[in-house]
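Annex B. Sample input.
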Amino acid sequence: MQKKAIEFAVSRHKSLSLNPQNPREYGINKPGVKGSLWISTYKGRKYKGTRVQTTGEVASILNDHIEQLQSSDYVGEHHEYKYWYIEDSRDVEKIIDILGRS
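Annex B, continued. Sample output.
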């Protein structure tokens, strides 16, 4: 997933804010909700697709939806977050839309 696609998906929801951390990693927050959605466009050595990570209350909102996507490949969890690689960029847009509508 490219930067412009991420920016466009977030811009459709006034309740979301995009916080670029570096040219390939983006935090997406929703005011009043603890936690965040992280999208990384790094190419994984073992996995294909876009890396998606959830933390806090955002994880409670999104994890079940992400696990139901056919293009998601669950990788693991580390303390307070879970992360996946998602091959289909349209599914990443769906995740952002779910957070925006929640």
